[in-house]
Amino acid sequence: MKKVLALALALAFVAVAAVSGEFNWRQFEGATVKVMLVQHPYAEGIHKKIADFEKLTGIKVEHNTIPEENYMDKLATSVASQFGDPDVFMSGAYQAWEYAPAGYLADLDEFVDDPALTTPDYDLGDFFEGILGSMRWDLVPGHKVGVGKLWGIPIGFETNCLSYNKEIFAEHNIKVPTTPEELYAAARRLQKFEGEGTYGIAVRGTRNWATVNTGYLTTFANYGGVDMAIENGRLVSKLDSPESIKMTDDWVKMIRESGSPTWASYTWYQCQADLGARKAAILFDADILGYFANFPGGSAESGKLASAAPVKPAGRSAPLTANLWAWALSLNNYSKAKGPAWLFIQYFTGKEFLTFSVTEWKSVDTPRKSVFNNPEFQKLVGDMDGYLEMFEKTIPGATILFTPNPYHFEVTTEWAATLQDIVAGKYPSTEAAMKQLKQRIDVILEDVELE
Questions:
Q1: The last residue of a domain, from among 348, 366, 392
Q2: Is residue 449 part of a domain?
Q3: The domain containing residue 64 runs over which residues?
Q4: pTM (two decimals)
Q5: Which residues contact residue 138 at a Cβ distance below 8 angstroms, ignoring those fewer than 6 apart?
Q6: CA distances from 139 to 142, 201, 203 (A)
């Protein structure tokens, strides 16, 4: 009887709050939220504050943290079941392109705009536009992100930049590259900089979508390349364009002349490990990799590393851009606890938690402007030479550079496989390879409906 009375009182309070527009963190006291997280520093920060969230709200949190290599498969199975479990999960733009059209994601604008559900100081405008925009999309394949409903709210992100060993650069009198030509020349000069086993530049190379997701795609876009376009009412590949062929040819030469001899097996982990072990002089990948390797105790070369903005061809007038990946929290549209789930998302994307996550934990790239401008955060990242300058140069143009489509992972894996085959000499030329790749991707995209 007591439980029934408590529930009735709670429901009555929620109804009053909804009418009055007043916000209260305890409006769903007694509820349970099920959360699925990927094994990542961002998730570790959440773990540290779950007890505080439960104390604030009276909501119980059941969370499951899954290794990154298994996470996406497990998540896909869970959301497709339409059972509403988990209520909240970590996601990104690429998942939204698949899950939102299928009806698996709730539009978070509806929650943000409800004064009974969102605290007045939440301040969605505090997010960097490009970072928050990575999770907005209008559900039309071929339309870029940044417009449409909000399918998730970022908790952290990674953009792509150069990380390099400043001691090695100084020893060889090399200036920080700002153009692709300078980057390729620096990498060539540093090949075998300390004999066998050392090399110029570390980039990803596995037969996996992630290989084209970081330094490659950032450079591709800064050459003027685009992956897809809408033509005659259809979504088609543009990987046979002059810009695409030129950039890919230059990239292949860089790998052959300056990369690891085992490049084709490289993920982010091997790239970061080689930079931190003084095997690679330069890394072109996620900015957090160089940062963590430079952190005290992060690697043998900690304290000797620096960051720099990605390169752009000299004379190209378009603004500098960089591909980004944002980890976000999304709400399962089939959740039976949407209100409590939204409070979880709101708390862990709010200013207080995100300040903790970068000043007391190790999330590094914050999606909120106010947190970035926090003096304590500025001091922390200021210890990484060039990081703040890189961030300020890169963030205005950082965005999702892939074109939204339902076959993203299939297309990008095919792209990575072709890049691997070009490096291995399995095509007569880069041009021939990219033209054949375009044809294969067009077949994949044949059934994509744009309306």
A1: 392
A2: no
A3: 2-157+326-392
A4: 0.89
A5: 147, 148, 149
A6: 9, 38, 32
